[in-house]
Amino acid sequence: MPCTRGSESGFPAWNIRSPCEREQKNARLVIKILAAHQRTRETYGVKRLHSELVDQGVQITAYRVRVLRKKLNLRCKQKRKFKVKTDSKHHLPFAPNILKREFAISAPGKAWVSDITSIPTDEGWLYLAGIKELFNGKLTGYAMNERMTTDLIIQALFRAADRKLAEKGLVLHSDSKLAIRIINRLNKLGSVDISHR
């Protein structure tokens, strides 16, 4: 294996020599590219990142952005397409609508309403199940998870129940089909009626 020839006194000089002007400029550009990559939530590709840097007053070509991004191993996050998770054509039983849209309640602990919503985040979708007291409009229980499951609603219900705000004969109104799946579990407790529309 051939080795390069050079003087012995040349190596220490090469070793302590400061980086060339291009390397110094690349080091400054790397910092600006990383900052722009973070500022744009890691979603910009080469073209958009180049435009972002030019708008910030950085003199750089798109080719150089591409080369430095590759060197830094930066990748843009792909947004997932939103998929509807509800199935209105299910064959689950429907509970009677006990509330009949009468949301004016005279005392606390008589009626709760529940719902599930999806929240887009940088890491994907987050599902939030909430239980709200109809008397004063306060949130009595909630739960969050990356997946919309029966356990999500059960967690929210048990958090609300742990606060001991429920009265005997409590009505829980929900328009979520997942709530139907827990009817049997809650009816075993004997103190909860479930209304579903």
Automatic annotation (TrEMBL):
Superkingdom as given in the UniProt entry: Bacteria
Residues of the HTH-like domain: 27-82
Pfam family name, one: rve
GO BP annotations listed: DNA integration
Integrase catalytic domain: residues covered: 107-176
Name this protein carries in UniProt: Putative transposase
